[in-house]
Amino acid sequence: MLSPLTHDDPAGFGTYRLIARLGSGGMGTVYLARGATSRTVALKTMHARIATDPAFRTRFRLETDAARIIGGQHGAAVFDADPQAETPWLATEYVLGPPLDDAVGLCGPLPEASVRALGAALAGALAQLHSSDVVHRDLKPSNVMVTAYGPKVIDFGIARAAGDTHLTRTGAAAGTPAFMSPEQATGQEHTPAGDVFALAGVLVFAATGHGPFGGGQAADLLYRVRYSEPELSDVPPSLVPVLARCLAKDPAQRPTTAQLAAELHDGHGDFADHLPDPLLAEIARRATEVWQYQPYRLPAPADSALAPTAPDTPAVSRRRLLAVGGGSALGVAAVGFGTWTWAGRVRGKEPAAGPTASPSSSPTEPAEPKPEYTWQIAVGQPTGIDLTPALASVPFPLGDQVVLAIGNGFAGVHAATGVARWTTGEVEPNWQVTSDGTELYRVGEIKESVGNKGKPWPLLIESIDLSTGQPKRRVPLIGEYNGVVYEIQLICASGGVIYATAPGKERDKEMSYFDHAQSWWLTAIDSRTGKVRWKQSLPRRPDKSDRLHFLAGRVVGDRLVLLQETNKGEVRVVARNTRTGAPIWDKPFAGIKPEQVRERLTTDERHVYLGSGTLRALRLSDGGEAWKVPGRVVGPPAVKNGAVYAVQKGIGIVAVDAATGKVRWQEKGTQGARTDLVERPVVGTNYVYARDPSGLRAVDVGTHTTAKVYETAGTRFCAHEKAGQVISYGNRLLAAFPLQ
Amino acid sequence: MERPRPGGAPATAPVPAARQIGPYHLITRLDPPGGHVTCRRFIARSADGDRTVLVNSPLPGADPGRFAVEAEAGRRLMGPWVAPVAEVAAPGEVPWYAVPYLPALPLPVALAVHGSPLPERTVRALGAALAETLQTAHAQGLTHAGLSPAAVLITGDGPRLTCFGAVRAAAPDGEQRAGLPGLEPGGIAPEQVSGGRPRPPGDIYALGAVLAYAATGHTVPEGDELPAGLRPLISACLSRDPAGRPTAADALTELAPPAPHATVLSSAGSLMTPGWLPGRIVAALARQSAEVLAAELRLPQPPFTPHVPQTWN
């Protein structure tokens, strides 16, 4: 939990000297620090880079205010703060106890006596908050620190307090909606009774190790929160009635905090009397460990050329900048924002190093062989709502950056150096982001719609500023579509037009699933005016389907080429007129599973190239088959400079003339036999790159043999032509290798 | 000894006179007033804030020379259950010594916090750790001569034995030691009270008294007060005849029977498993830790207030 400072951590903030790291994430870092008066504190910082956004700075200040209101008895006592500093910081008490989710992870479900004492104390904490007209809004196990003399509540749902109750954002912001109230899940006002609902969820978790509505995908959870009975079968029977009342869908049926406290516990004994031994031992360990820790600062990586430090982020360890996977709160920090995703849980949760150690992971071993990557950084897994995680997006090049889904949003990384440029603060299903090669678009959030009383909201699309990750321009609101569904999909963008699927607005409440009563449209939207150029009806999806309408799409000339998924899970190749949306041709892509071709559509100005089986080409003009290569089983193809490349099963790289389908060459030797058939090859000038079990293999286009194998943990690849790099992504590492 | 008042000393009992001992600024007393401790103990911190220590100084009127000798000799005491003397006063200075700070409660405070005598399991674990320490000391030719309830500090991972040589420091051999300040009347072996040179069996007597205190709240227990499982050992330790007392090794075997498959790890530490300390004691340790972390030294800044003496606030 206490880990050494890194070489690029600053000496301190304000009058506080840094002693150790407690955790770090995409938004900031929490340190153990010591002030001029010798007081030791938990010091939470927000990256200066992020704090340039006034909205985040405001959130930081509100969080500070809320922490002051809850005070030191029920929260982490605030000692000092400077929300105006270039790097805003907040100094609080260093809380000696694990967060409840860690406590349950460590000790197993808590005994009934613990649950009752915890519940009564938390009800008291909420009562104090509510009497100050503050509603917590984000009570969940990771926000409850269990100390020996009572729980301390941290991390307020400030985003919601500021008025953002958009359904998808709320679910996303909390990381999981498992502890959300039904009224919160439907975007209605979250009152003190909503906190009572969440408190009961936290107690169910404490007693059983799971939330009252189980786990799984966010959309499933939201549905169950709203419509299903809580799962209380393994809750101690005497607790069931009171918890069931707290979990009533109707806020008016729930007990008040005072009733709840009285019903849970008669107040006998000390809080510590009710805690199980392993939890007490953990608290004792934390209380002692902080005094035994020897401050230490890690040396700079031996080969500093491999670890450039972003000059504009002096307070941030670049290595950790993107390490935003994992839990939603720090295991050890006294404070943290509920809406932030932290690397946290420092114990054993460093992003896993792949077969190639990153330079910073072994800074003390300069003798290590020089890695072959241009750069490598640890990144978090996407944690956003993703109905079909198997369809995770690939990174894609955009300007001098690589854009990828990461943590609870998207991030831009400078492709030549690996320096992280920005992260978006919000969760997006990754199909709600697209680019035309210049601009990055995403489905936005509609702040002014708060108070819309569950009415459909107009669809909002925003352009993202590629220097900050913040919205820079809005496509005017599109009133004829309902903006409140996960399945809205930005398919592609080209020539100032965004192609998207969107639901009609006949529904008068928001949805978290496909719903058979809902109409769907494929639509072309002018990215400047928001004007709908055309719309074409799409088949309705059965209730609760999670099949997106489109797997991939791109514009070639006047054709919008799409891989479309049917209700039955079949894939069709469809070309439409970009001016009208009318289908020009529609061909089956037989024998293919949708996930095999997600974001793997290969075209040039003449053909669509299909692989993942037999390699063939369809004419863009009429959809007819231009050629096919019989007798060879291949993976998905790539095309460049008049040649189509694919991995052939048992052989390796095969190159085919794009115009005729004539095989130009195939790989020699035995090394190609184990090449991955899932990914498209990446085509350079001298080499074609493909993944095999030993890493990223470069096959020489002149000799048709393996020229080099780069070790990499990556599983998905793309070419960044401008930076001259092959971008490799997977297993929490993003790396770049020379594209030659 | 009387059972301490429930509540004991608050962890941040104020220090009456703003004070500094050696380079350390006092934060709070470790012991409640009125206890039987042969020295004064404070939680204190260096001016730069980087070293927090327990600092010990002699009681008023005590012989500073003998205190300094014992502090120096105490550095030879070894083992996991000893608070290691890290720093002693320079020659000629008013004597003191410092050990690194850990959240710790003197045994009488632990009883007060718990509200009753300690469970047998806790007493056994404490006893085994103390016996192990005495075994090591005696093998080195050292006699602790300072074991008493207040000399045992309870920390989260086991006891820490302090106050090395307190009996020798209180009065030279040959002088009566009954009623001397700080000495626990019922906790000193009869041969030492009468002025005898402290020897290992005297430590065993003190061990018996400490265990009796932990298990009953009294160093001189009624026989039937003691838990049956501990009664034979404690009674043997408290024999008036030094020859009738067990050795430290015997006591350790009795308190922590060797595992059937003994390893080098078999020691008193194997008894400090989760649950060895009652919850309220853990809570008091955590609270003390939090309070000392949050404690501030308000030292005047010399460039701005050059004439104001350093004070603790």
Automatic annotation (TrEMBL), chain A:
<dbReference type="InterPro" id="IPR017441">
    <property type="entry name" value="Protein_kinase_ATP_BS"/>
</dbReference>
<dbReference type="Pfam" id="PF13360">
    <property type="entry name" value="PQQ_2"/>
</dbReference>
<keyword id="KW-0067">ATP-binding</keyword>
<feature type="binding site">
    <location>
        <position position="44"/>
    </location>
    <ligand>
        <name>ATP</name>
    </ligand>
</feature>
<protein>
    <recommendedName>
        <fullName>Protein kinase domain-containing protein</fullName>
    </recommendedName>
</protein>
<dbReference type="InterPro" id="IPR018391">
    <property type="entry name" value="PQQ_b-propeller_rpt"/>
</dbReference>
<dbReference type="InterPro" id="IPR011009">
    <property type="entry name" value="Kinase-like_dom_sf"/>
</dbReference>
<dbReference type="InterPro" id="IPR008271">
    <property type="entry name" value="Ser/Thr_kinase_AS"/>
</dbReference>
<dbReference type="InterPro" id="IPR011047">
    <property type="entry name" value="Quinoprotein_ADH-like_sf"/>
</dbReference>
<feature type="compositionally biased region" description="Low complexity">
    <location>
        <begin position="351"/>
        <end position="365"/>
    </location>
</feature>
<feature type="region of interest" description="Disordered">
    <location>
        <begin position="348"/>
        <end position="371"/>
    </location>
</feature>
<dbReference type="InterPro" id="IPR002372">
    <property type="entry name" value="PQQ_rpt_dom"/>
</dbReference>
<dbReference type="Pfam" id="PF00069">
    <property type="entry name" value="Pkinase"/>
</dbReference>
<keyword id="KW-0808">Transferase</keyword>
<dbReference type="InterPro" id="IPR000719">
    <property type="entry name" value="Prot_kinase_dom"/>
</dbReference>
<keyword id="KW-0418">Kinase</keyword>
<dbReference type="GO" id="GO:0004674">
    <property type="term" value="F:protein serine/threonine kinase activity"/>
</dbReference>
<keyword id="KW-0547">Nucleotide-binding</keyword>
<dbReference type="InterPro" id="IPR015943">
    <property type="entry name" value="WD40/YVTN_repeat-like_dom_sf"/>
</dbReference>
<feature type="domain" description="Protein kinase">
    <location>
        <begin position="16"/>
        <end position="271"/>
    </location>
</feature>
<dbReference type="GO" id="GO:0005524">
    <property type="term" value="F:ATP binding"/>
</dbReference>
Automatic annotation (TrEMBL), chain B:
<keyword id="KW-0067">ATP-binding</keyword>
<keyword id="KW-0547">Nucleotide-binding</keyword>
<feature type="domain" description="Protein kinase">
    <location>
        <begin position="1"/>
        <end position="264"/>
    </location>
</feature>
<dbReference type="GO" id="GO:0005524">
    <property type="term" value="F:ATP binding"/>
</dbReference>
<dbReference type="InterPro" id="IPR011009">
    <property type="entry name" value="Kinase-like_dom_sf"/>
</dbReference>
<keyword id="KW-0808">Transferase</keyword>
<dbReference type="GO" id="GO:0004674">
    <property type="term" value="F:protein serine/threonine kinase activity"/>
</dbReference>
<keyword id="KW-0418">Kinase</keyword>
<protein>
    <recommendedName>
        <fullName>Protein kinase domain-containing protein</fullName>
    </recommendedName>
</protein>
<dbReference type="InterPro" id="IPR000719">
    <property type="entry name" value="Prot_kinase_dom"/>
</dbReference>
